[in-house]
Design goal:
The chain is of the alpha+beta class and 768 residues long. Helix content is 48%, strand content 19%. Strands 1, 2, 3, 4, 5 and 6 form a six-stranded antiparallel sheet that branches. It has a five-stranded antiparallel sheet with strand order 12-11-15-14-13. A five-stranded mixed sheet has the order 18-20-21-23-22. Helix 15 runs antiparallel to helix 16 and helix 17 packs across helix 19.
Length: 768
């Protein structure tokens, strides 16, 4: 984490340096003084303004929200009052003894039942006129569900037993009222119009038993008028609530999430067809929670509002206003505050510039003298016009110029001495600039590479650097130049020379980056290493054929002659087979090492699913896991990875080595738990192999990837082993641009991490 932060910080410093170089005025004291005055004046003002504005904004927001709540609560009260008035009117009918008496005559089929029905129809029509056209009509239904009297002759004789308002009302006690949801039906009008049914049971005068039901079918447009303010205007109000707000919308939603009143943004056809599945509606229907705040309305617009629940009916009363209108006062306040702050900043900036220029004017004059001296005019001297600090600085500057000539001569002598020392060194040394142009080369360098005039490019002599440094300055690749690296160069006679190069950077007097390169000739050592590798390769090839034959014959003898051999002979044969198998494995690993070191590793990638390949590879270790009483689990990523080009044989060698080691170096039984994880980390696939085995001693961990190295406790835990598996694994992984590392503690286990780029492996078929 710290290294990543350092890289970010260094990148920021480089960009800052480039920006300042392009804008030299930012380095001036005048700018710095202006900036300090600006910070000391403006920042406290901005902080205070922000705190005050935040408080005012929060208070204004709470007031706006509270106003929506007040509107919602007021409208909720209007709706409840309206519904209660409807219930009261229906109850008045149920307590009307004339209606009960006439219904009894009709229900009991007395001789005058027809006359009673006519009287009841006439009486109901009279009552309907008193409702000021608020209802479609009134029905009286007997206890069998048949309409026996109505304000509309077409209703008489209808069977209402299947209707909810009859079936639920007939079981109520006297004085109780059933209020239906808003529905559409065929009652009283042609076609289907919305209505609200209020029903209450009728009881007999003598025994008090239910003899029928009275139902009133109220028109629903009064609810629309009530919510829109038209009802209040009809009673004398100057204007309705919607008229004072452009985007305010008040409507009711039933338990089926359907609009049951008009919305100012939709036509009449939206009634009982427009679905309103918004946050406040869901909150009311699921948990009877009333909502206040911001949400998206049924049209997808961002609104501020409040919602009230009418749980007895399953209705939701919603009051909404578009965000722009709700916060238009806040937007105006923000604009005014921003204008005020901009004016203050402009005034402070002008004042800071004036003060800074007045203070720095003498410094600018001294700077001009310094520029003349830089151009080579060492006879220039600064005039001392004042007795303040700047005057003292000018006097000191003149004294410095007097001593400069002596220091220059001494510097030339030291430079000549350093050149003599470097030329006497037996190793090649050169100094290059940011463009890798040679600034200096000692005699050993010239003997190795030929005469090299100042101004030559290093990459013309060292071919490995051409790709890196031909198109980019040295300062952009400085991280690659640190430390020690190996290179291959062309010698004076045309042969190949192998060198180890050590780099050290420094800044010269002009603060330009310079690099000192010291070369060590390791050509002979490389040749010995090459011969050793070729010997191992040839020997391994020659050994593999007879070893394979011995293994094959031993396996044939085991299978075909097992019945003719005694126990000792079988044991000898089994030892021959196992020893030969270990020798074949060692030879194969030596051949792999030889191919890796000589660059002859073949990579043949094919597009494949990484999860499936790993699952198959882990299954191949099942026999070893069973023999070690070990449980191996594979956890796939939650989201399937994209197919990547990968060489399956190389992946099998990598994962197989890691899982094999995890099993072998774990204790059998409960402690032998191996877990393999696969997940995507940005643009890479991360494979993790976790065991709870013997672990790796801390002092031996730096050598764990070396050839033929095995940890001391690993040797005790498993005598067999070559110490080549992890070396091969690391070399293969780094060969295709991946990474491998581990964490381990003795007695607690080891975790290996492998990074595979999601770009996959590149095809490679080197035949050196």
């Amino acid at each position: 984490m710290s290294s990543r932060f350092n890289k970010i910080w260094q990148a920021f410093k480089r960009k800052k340096a480039i920006f300042v170089a392009r804008h030299p005025g930012l380095k001036s004291i005048s700018f710095k003084l202006t900036f300090i005055i600006f910070l000391l004046s403006v920042v406290p003002l901005l902080v205070a303004s922000y705190l005050i504005f935040s408080y005012v904004k929060a208070d204004l927001r709470s007031q706006i929200i509270e106003s929506q709540v007040l509107i919602a609560e007021a409208q909720e009260g209007h709706v409840f009052s309206f519904l209660e008035s409807l219930k009261g009117k229906t109850l008045d009918l149920t307590y009307n003894t004339l209606i009960s008496r006439l219904l009894e005559k009709i229900a009991n089929k007395k001789p005058d039942s027809e006359q009673a029905a006519q009287e009841l129809n006439t009486y109901l029509s009279f009552i309907r006129k008193t409702f000021n056209n608020r209802i479609y009509g009134i029905n009286v239904i007997d206890k069998n569900g048949v309409v026996v009297a109505s304000t509309d002759a077409r209703e008489i004789g209808r069977d209402e037993r299947q209707d909810d308002y009859f079936s639920q009302t007939i079981g109520l006690d006297r004085g109780q009222v059933f209020l239906s949801d808003i529905v559409t039906g065929h009652h009283f009008v042609e076609g289907k119009n919305p209505f609200l049914v209020v029903a209450s049971p009728l009881v007999g005068e003598q025994d008090g038993k239910t003899i029928g039901v009275v139902t009133e079918y109220f028109k629903t447009h009064y609810l629309d008028d009530l919510l829109s303010g038209k009802y209040q205007e009809a009673l004398g109000a100057i204007s309705g609530i919607l008229g004072r707000n452009k985007t305010l919308d008040i409507y009711l939603v039933n338990k089926d999430k359907l609009l049951i009143t008009k919305s100012r943004f939709l036509g009449v056809e939206s009634f009982l067809t427009q679905v309103v599945d918004t946050d406040p509606v869901r909150a009311c229907l699921s948990g009877r929670e009333e909502a206040v705040g911001m949400w998206n309305n049924y049209l997808g617009d961002r609104v501020l509002g409040a919602a009230m629940c009418l749980p007895n009916l399953g209705w939701t009363l919603v009051v909404e206003k578009h965000e722009q209108e709700a916060f238009q006062l806040m937007a105006a306040l923000t604009k005014n505050v921003n204008t005020f702050i901009f004016l203050i900043i402009a005034l402070v900036a002008a004042f800071g510039i004036y003060i800074a220029r007045k203070i720095t004017r003498p410094m600018v004059s001294l700077s001009r003298v310094i520029q003349e001296i830089i151009q080579g005019n060492f006879h220039m001297r600064s005039r001392v016009d004042s007795q303040d600090e700047i005057g003292a600085l000018s006097g000191s500057f003149n004294q410095m110029l007097d001593k400069l000539d002596g220091a220059s001569a001494q510097l030339a002598a030291e430079k000549n001495k350093l050149s003599v020392i470097l030329d006497s060194l037996p190793v090649p040394v050169d100094i290059v600039d940011e463009q890798r142009t040679i600034l200096y080369a000692n005699e050993a360098f010239k003997r190795l590479f030929g005469e090299c005039a100042a101004g030559d490019k290093c990459y013309l002599k060292i071919k490995d650097d051409k790709k890196i440094c031909e198109n980019c300055p040295l300062k952009e690749g400085i991280e690659k130049m640190k430390g020690v690296r190996s290179i291959e160069v062309g010698g004076v006679g045309g042969g190949k020379i192998y060198l180890i190069v050590s780099h050290a950077t420094f800044k010269d007097v002009s603060q330009e980056t310079r690099v000192v390169e010291v070369f060590l000739d390791v050509t002979k050592e490389r040749e010995v290493e090459r011969m050793k590798t070729e010997f191992v390769s040839v020997a391994s090839h020659q050994l593999r054929t007879p070893l394979t034959a011995i293994k094959l014959f031993a396996e044939i003898l085991k299978s075909e002659q097992s019945d003719n051999l005694n126990k000792s002979q079988k044991d000898y044969l089994e030892n021959i087979y196992k020893s030969t198998d270990r020798m074949v494995q060692l030879v194969n690993e030596l051949l792999s090492v030889s191919r890796l070191e000589t660059g002859r590793l073949t990579v043949t990638p094919k597009l494949a699913q990484l999860e499936d390949l790993m699952s198959a590879i882990i299954k191949e270790t099942s026999s070893l896991a069973e023999s070690k009483q070990c449980v191996v689990t594979f956890r796939e990523p939650k989201k399937k990875l994209a197919p990547i080009p990968i060489d399956t044989s190389l992946l099998r060698q990598i994962i197989g080595n890691l899982v094999h080691n995890a099993i072998v170096y774990s204790e059998p039984g409960k402690k032998c738990q191996v877990e393999v994880l696969l997940e995507q980390d940005k643009s890479d696939a991360l494979i993790t192999v976790i065991d709870q085995g013997v672990g790796i001693p801390k002092d031996e961990q730096p050598r764990i990837f070396e050839k033929f190295f095995r940890a001391s406790n690993a040797v005790r835990a498993e005598a067999s082993g070559t110490g080549l598996g992890l070396f091969i694994t690391k070399t293969i992984i780094e060969g295709f641009g991946g990474k491998i590392w581990f964490e381990s503690a003795v007695g607690k286990g080891t975790t290996f991490y492998v990074i595979i780029p999601m770009s996959g492996m590149r095809e490679k078929n080197d035949k050196k």
